[in-house]
């Protein structure tokens, strides 16, 4: 008799989603995107002619029939894995993902979170290169490039994953020495500048309706991450991008003396070369960036 089998990739996606109780966790386990799991489950539902999951706002639950189906096929996947291990088939080959991102973003946002990605995907090696060059000026090929946006570049697909605003930040110790009650009190402080972002303080002071304010002193650095480090060390007050100082604010290394005004800023976006758009590993990392940036 001819065997009638469902699409195996779709069955694999259903088994992982049903066992883990989450499309998101299934996607992480299978090293694919959330959308890929959802698509494969939908394909299996169409093939079977029956719904497998009841879909709610942010969660899914198995239908009674799907629970019974999973109870029968789940052990088969375990048997298949054990048989494969017994016959010495090598495990998954590690892959390297090449990422290019700005230095300050890498140091203050990406690096503190990479350990979490590596724990979830130990077989993936990440190669990070820092640069602020425009996409079209990059000499080396990369799987994914992080830059501000949203912008449109020929040959790249773009998806934003992290938004931010800018506002003054400083160390708690600095405020103890010289309190800040209103924006006008900045005249008693040192304002920290970055040479590549000369308009940050003038634009914020204009938004605060004190465009002519003259601080006690100014200090300018050539890299933004040095400016932020100087603020942490209590040297002065910096214009901090909310996404890049969120960990410092949460840990108490920095404080925001004023609730506003907040300067709007460009989002961080992932730019993927067209030839990499179907790559499951690239899609996996892109989805992870979006989850972390929520």
Automatic annotation (TrEMBL):
Gene3D superfamilies tied to this protein: Periplasmic binding protein-like II, Winged helix-like DNA-binding domain superfamily/Winged helix DNA-binding domain
PROSITE patterns: HTH_LYSR
The HTH lysR-type domain, residue ranges: 6-63
UniProt-recorded Gene Ontology molecular function terms: DNA-binding transcription factor activity; sequence-specific DNA binding
Statement: the UniProt record of this protein carries the keyword Transcription: yes
Keywords, ordered alphabetically: DNA-binding, Transcription, Transcription regulation
InterPro entries the record matches: LysR-type_TF_proteobact-type (IPR058163), LysR_HTH_N (IPR000847), LysR_subst-bd (IPR005119), WH-like_DNA-bd_sf (IPR036388), WH_DNA-bd_sf (IPR036390)
NCBIfam families: PRK11139.1
Family annotation (PANTHER family): HTH-TYPE TRANSCRIPTIONAL REGULATOR (PTHR30537), HTH-TYPE TRANSCRIPTIONAL REGULATOR TRPI (PTHR30537:SF74)
Name used for this protein in its record: Transcriptional regulator GcvA
Organism whose genome encodes this protein: Cupriavidus campinensis
Gene transcribed to yield this protein: gcvA
């Amino acid at each position: 008799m001819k065997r009638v089998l469902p699409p195996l990739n779709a069955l694999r996606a259903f088994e992982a989603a049903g066992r883990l109780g989450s499309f998101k966790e299934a996607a992480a386990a299978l090293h694919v995107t959330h959308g890929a799991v959802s698509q494969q489950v939908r394909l299996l539902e169409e093939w079977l002619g029956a719904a497998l999951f009841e879909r709610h706002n942010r969660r899914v639950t198995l239908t009674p029939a799907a629970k019974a189906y999973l109870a029968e096929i789940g052990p088969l996947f375990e048997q298949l894995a054990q048989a494969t291990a017994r016959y010495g088939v090598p495990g998954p080959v590690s892959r390297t993902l090449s990422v290019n991102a700005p230095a300050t973003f890498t140091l203050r946002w990406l690096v503190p979170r990479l350990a979490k990605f590596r724990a979830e995907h130990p077989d993936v090696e990440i190669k990070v290169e820092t640069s602020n060059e425009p996409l079209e000026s990059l000499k080396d090929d990369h799987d994914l490039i992080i830059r501000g946006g949203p912008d449109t570049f020929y040959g790249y697909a773009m998806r934003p994953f992290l938004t931010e605003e800018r506002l003054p930040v400083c160390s708690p110790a600095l405020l103890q020495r010289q309190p800040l009650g209103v924006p006008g009190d900045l005249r008693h402080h040192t304002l920290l500048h970055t040479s590549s972002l000369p308009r940050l303080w003038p634009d914020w002071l204009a938004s605060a309706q004190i465009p002519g304010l003259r601080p006690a002193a100014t200090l300018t650095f050539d890299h933004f991450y040095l400016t932020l480090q100087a603020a942490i060390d209590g040297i002065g007050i910096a214009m901090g991008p909310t996404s890049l100082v969120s960990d410092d604010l949460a840990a108490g290394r920095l404080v925001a003396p004023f609730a506003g005004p907040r300067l709007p800023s460009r989002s961080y976006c992932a730019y993927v070369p067209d030839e990499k758009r179907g790559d499951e590993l690239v899609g996996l990392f892109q989805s992870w960036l979006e989850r972390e940036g929520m």
